[in-house]
Amino acid sequence: MSHQLAPDYDVVGVGFGPSNLSLAIALEDCARQRRLDCRALFVERQPSFKWHGGMLLPGSNMQISFLKDLVSLRDPTSPFTFINYLHKSGRLLDFTNCRTFYPSRIEFNDYLRWVAGQFDAMVEYGETVVAVEPVSAGQSVVALRVVTRTGDGAEQSRIARNLVVAVGGVPHVPAVFQSVAGDRRVVHTSGYLDSSAIAELSGRAPRVAVIGGGQSAAEVTLDLSERNPNVRIDLVFRGHALKPSDSSPFVNEIFNPDYIDHFHSRDESQRAAIIRSFRNTNYAVVDPDLLDQLYRMTYQQRVCGSRRLALHPRSEIVGAQAVRDGIALELLNKDEGIRHHATYDAIVLATGYERSPIPAFLDPISRYIETSALERDYRLQTSPGFRPQVYLQGCSEISHGLSDTLLSVLPMRAHEITAALMSSTGTQRGVEQEPHLAERVYS
User: Fold this and answer.
1) What's in the keyword line of the UniProt record (predicted)?
2) 240 burial via Cβ count (<10 Å: 0-12, 13-18, 19+)
3) How many CB atoms are located within 10 Å of the residue 97 CB?
4) Could you count the other beta carbons within 10 Å of the beta carbon of residue 371?
5) Are 148 and 188 part of one and the same domain?
């Protein structure tokens, strides 16, 4: 392929959730401040912008301050802050009267959608990236061919000098549920609100099993009970009790952007120890206020002598089978070694997400990737002669800490990736080919 090949884009972003949305703001800021053009495109598989649409439950609130939005920690004067969103929406004073730092999840999704709408010209929705292929010139890889597929099967190829991947997690389905995963009565929380099986539970006395002991499990349990006063819910989890999340101020400092420097500089065993030590900030834990609501529900049941919610701690699902009347489960109480069987109208898997260190669509360039560990600036380590820069967002908890999959570090991470892209521009583009491009940035 000719060395004169002109890439279509300076940078292509895969996915357009909060991570790459924050990056889009940083790209625009840099281009505006330096009066430089940046040819950027983001590709998103959803048909329109939506953030965790399956769990936008009425009454569910954010667990981090609105100040940890897409940009405020980097530039509080930006027009893309949550505060400006409230101002433009005519609700700033009303929100102030709510006396809270924690907006509803529905409102925060609306904020994200409001920002995303201002970047529509840079986004292609409804396209899934299926492969990222090397584009070679002589002995070097000089660019990447990004191949996407639309819902009707049409393929599109674009050439990019750099790639930023932020595809989020894939719903985790435990092995015991794999045989029934295709049954519409088995629902992961990611699709909870869109599930026809959940919608059909109203108007009768259904029985539902919620699997998991974390925030999503608690939220779904409360939502189900509010939707249908006759529903019977079994909340099944492995722990000894539902545990509160730790959001105390000193502990919360592990989510500060500068803590990443400390974490990344540790060796592998030290990093693993830190993650174990702070798991109660993010994994298999529930907001304390939500725990109080659940406990009051179980207490009121005792007062009234009715049973709508039963907790099954120290329990594990060891069998699952689709039958005519529902999904039959075999539960094992690990403390007592007792098994019992029950059939449910619906199963809700509040079992979290899986995040691949390196997404499968990068397989065509895998021979150039030296290790799955990321540099401090979130860049993949690649072999000499591979010129494109490939950055990964939201899949490097083992190297960058617990904040990597959360919203807390979005603005500063976008800034760091922007700065790294800027610093590599001159050598990437080749001054001898296009002298003026050495002064440009993909930022």
Assistant:
1) FAD, Flavoprotein, NADP, Oxidoreductase
2) exposed
3) 9
4) 10
5) no
Residue whose tokens read 């953030």: 51
Confidence of residue 440 (pLDDT cuts 50, 70, 90): very low
Domain that holds residue 207: 173-245+282-352
Element (H, E) at 331: strand 326-333
Residues 206 and 99 both lie in one domain: no
The predicted-structure confidence for 223-277, as pLDDT tens digits, reads as follows 999 989 899 999 999 999 999 999 999 999 999 989 999 999 999 999 999 999 9
Amino acid identity of residue 289, one-letter, is D
116: domain CATH number?
Answer: 3.50.50.60
Nearest to 27 by CA among 169, 126, 135, 162: 162
Mean pLDDT of the chain: 91
Q: Let me know: does 370 contact 382? Beta carbons within 8 Å.
A: yes
- pTM for the complete prediction? 0.91
CA 178 to chain centre: 23
The amino acid at residue 162 is N
* pLDDT tops 90 at residue 204: no
DSSP annotation string for 54-94: GG--TT-B-SS-TTSSSSTTT-TT-TTSHHHHHHHHT-HHH
Question: Rounded to whole angstroms, what are the CA distances from 334 to 175, 239, 331, 340?
Answer: 18, 10, 9, 12
In sequence order, what are the residues at sequence separation of 6 or more whose Cβ sits closer than 8 angstroms to the Cβ of residue 29? 75, 78
pLDDT for 423 = 74
- Residue 257: inside a domain: no
Same domain for 409 and 339: no
Radius of gyration of the chain (CA): 24
Give percent of the chain above pLDDT 70. Answer: 93
